[in-house]
Design goal:
The chain is about 45% helix and about 15% strand. Helix 11 packs across helix 12. The protein has about 300 residues and is α/β, with parallel strands linked by helices. The structure holds pseudouridine-5'-monophosphate and manganese (II) ion.
Length: about 300
């Protein structure tokens, strides 16, 4: 095993015993939600995965170690420290390891650790993508390149319209990343079930998704896949209301000159303020929904 990698006893036992394991990221804890909802959500997601018959592997960097499977204390620590924890994507990883520091892993960094550990399925809320005006700013999340190269399936609720969803889908197509609509013909937009953009492939069961992933990897098509799982109807938001909040948040980011890795956390926090917490409730529910599906896919792999 890699000298930087540390699996919890539960995750190590599940992997060696061929039991289903679902990876979870930690940037969503430190930078994606406020305390204490972030801690409560992280713990509840783990419980949902356990109740669905799989083992959760929440991933983060603690003391320069790539951890898969955190203790309750470690989750509490990352949740409480919030944005003071380093947000770690691919390019940040070597520095944080060498300094023996702590870090919250983005989708990209979580995929890297999951692949090292041998975990194939990962659940989160939303992935990063091509930002609006990305053709000018070049602000394209490293998550997309990771999906192009690292062989882990990411279950998410689509991407937020803080991004340019159409450009994000074009980018994924160019890099050969399969995008599945789970029970839908439309790519979901995180808070809402519709984005106005179609997916090429709709699959309606976890088994079909597992077969697709197995086929992909069996023929040497390395890289990830996006399993886009629309937010449950009862938790979804009013399209107009969320669009307004997003427009305001984007304008505020522009005015303040927010750039680089700060952009996504800034927008998420602003949207939460502007919607009076409704967006946070939706966000939490869609993560739960993704965790359930990811556990089912993980259980179907190799069957
Ligand atoms: N989108 C969300 N919630 C999140 C993130 C994105 O709706 O918490 C986080 C994820 O960790 C994702 C990261 O990997 O932000 C992307 O950041 P950036 O755009 O800087 O790559
Ligand atoms: Mn960026």
């Amino acid at each position: 095993m890699n000298e930087y990698l540390e699996l919890s006893a539960e995750v190590a036992a599940a992997l060696s015993g061929g039991k289903p394991v679902v990876a979870l990221e930690s940037t969503i804890i430190s930078h994606g939600m406020p305390y204490p909802q972030n801690r409560d959500t992280a713990l509840a997601v783990e419980k949902i995965i356990r109740d669905s018959g799989a083992v959760p592997a929440t991933i983060a960097i603690i003391g320069g170690k790539l951890k898969a499977g955190l203790t309750g204390e470690e989750i509490e620590y990352l949740a409480k420290k919030g944005r003071d924890v380093i947000k770690v994507s691919r390019r940040d990883l070597p520095f944080v390891l060498a300094r023996k520091a702590d870090g919250a892993t983005t989708v990209a960094a979580t995929m890297i650790v999951a692949e090292l550990a041998g975990i194939k399925v990962f659940a989160t809320g939303g992935v990063g993508g091509v930002h609006r005006e990305g053709n000018v700013t070049f602000d394209i999340s490293a998550d997309l390149q990771e999906l192009a190269h690292t062989s882990v399936a990411v279950v998410c609720a689509g991407v937020k319209s803080i991004l340019d969803i159409a450009l994000t889908l074009e980018y994924l197509e160019t890099y050969g990343v399969p995008v599945v609509g789970y029970g839908t013909d439309e790519f979901p937009a995180f808070y809402t079930r519709e984005s106005g953009l179609k997916v090429e492939y709709r699959l309606d069961t976890p088994e079909e998704i597992a077969r697709m992933l197995e086929a992909k990897w069996a023929v040497g098509l390395s890289g990830g896949a996006i399993i886009a799982n629309p937010i449950p109807v009862e938790s979804s938001m009013d399209g107009k209301l969320i669009t307004k909040a997003i427009e305001k948040a984007l304008a505020a980011a522009k005015k303040r000159g927010i750039k680089g890795k700060e952009t996504t956390p800034f927008l998420l926090a602003r949207i939460k303020e502007l919607t009076g917490g409704d967006s946070l409730d939706s966000n939490i529910q869609l993560v739960f929904n993704n965790a359930r599906l990811a556990a089912q896919i993980a259980a179907s792999m190799g069957k």
